[in-house]
Amino acid sequence: MTAENLKHKEFSLDELSEKEKKDHDPMIQFYLSGKYQDKEIYEISFSWAKKSADQGYADGMGRLGWHYMHGCGCKKDLKKAFKLFKEGAEKGSILAMNNLAILFNSDDNPEQNKSEALKWYKKAAEKGSSDAQYNLGQMYYYGEEVEMNKTEAFKWYLLAANQGDEDAQFKVGTMYDMGEGVTEDENEAFGWLTRAAEQNCAHAQAMLGLMYEKGRGVPKDKDEARRLYKLAADQGDFHGLEMLEALNSYVD
Description:
The protein is mainly α. The chain has 15 helices and no strands. The protein is globular. The termini are far apart.
């Protein structure tokens, strides 16, 4: 079985478990770990990640390091996380590269190194990691360890957004709306914010609600604005709550 087979076909836990029993394939162990990670059953996810990493599978190292970095299913150990990320990254794992960058960028890391974070984000982003593309966009947007460059930030956000990353879709939408790093375009802003909102991004729901309320890029629709504000507010978004209260208090 190849990685492409696993990527393009959705296997159940039972199917993966049966396949793993036959040959103890580290790639299947990695995917089993991911299934349990998604379910937040971290002890079992950790166990499968360790089996995969112990066989030298680079992505397994990236996943196991994640467990050590966050203390999920095991005791938190940043040194072990760093060692696993570094080895996995040097073997070509995009997951390990991005996680290594996150660790270098973390305020919790006593050996924080934003220059190294930038380097590894770039490596992972250039290999197609949407997470790394978004994170690299953040560094360019806010000028972290690199000169602030909104145009460059937009480029990386857009790459991530086109892969379905809802946070990146929100950033692309807001940058189109404000004309940051790209020519202002309300129609593009509306389209990208809609994509993000449909993925339950609260910030996008609040901003999209404002577009409906004001009739920017779309005909005015206060009922739709109210619905979107409420969706955002229900997720704890302060701006969504504030705008919902303001709209409800408004009398035509």
